[in-house]
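ARCHIVE CARD
SHELF: 3
SLOT: left
DATA:
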Amino acid sequence: MLLTPVECMTHIHIWMFAFTDPAQSLMLLMVSLDRLFSVIAPLRYVRFGHRYAYALVGFVFVYSFVSAVAAWIYPLAYSGPAFIGALCVNRLAYGPFQTYLNVIRIAYAYTSVVLYAVVLIIFRKKTAKVVAPMNDARRKQ
């Protein structure tokens, strides 16, 4: 049984994949940004409160929803014959949107890794400033 891209997009697992695929990589990036904020400005970070966390998670969900809606552009524009298998696991169900998902996933993952490296460097410098006077005091005793 062959399906058109529009018929594939009506399957719940395809719709959820279009929603959750950008969400997972963007959430990883948001966690990296959160850790960066907590290391750079720890006293201000404590005052951010729940609204800050809700804003980060809300942004991820809104972006993922818009991205999932954008996944419908190619299937709605396609008017050719049915060519996708019944499970809709073919990358052609998304068309160019699949390339977009791959690029976004890779960009967010690499950015997250770079941010974590920055966090580790900053954290190491800040802890060295705190630990150095304590080590000097021990040496004097």
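SLOT: right
DATA:
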Amino acid sequence: MSHQSHSTHESASSSTARRGTDGPTRRRTLAGFGLLAGSSVAVSACGSGGDSSSDTSDIDPNNPVDIAAASDVPEGGAIKVSSDGVTAVVAQPSPGQYKAYSSSCTHQGCSVTVQDTTITCPCHSSTFSIQDGSVQGGPAPKPLPQYKVTVDGGRITLS
């Protein structure tokens, strides 16, 4: 019986010796799965790549959001503002004309910034016009979604 036991042990150890560093080991297999899982998390954190912009449906039309004072928005420029859980880029392309856009880039959903008269995505350098939210450059596939803007009593509300 001891001969049989020795033979089993010998066969397992010779199997390990044959595998050496060339064959898959349990540790390598598990490490590979870990890398795959980590990669999918990293990719999903970057966005989906197509249409991950926030649409403007996050505002209840029966409950508009007071977002800014009209006097805070420079003529020919824009500001990025937040109120009641909504973040938007509010622009005044010409005197007295106000527009508001989603603050999420239409490429991968990154939060845009305002630089002078341009709306810019810091993630992949897409740029958008303050005139109409149209794509001016970069990988963004479509314009920024617009909010409906109302100006009353010097306040800008979005719906």
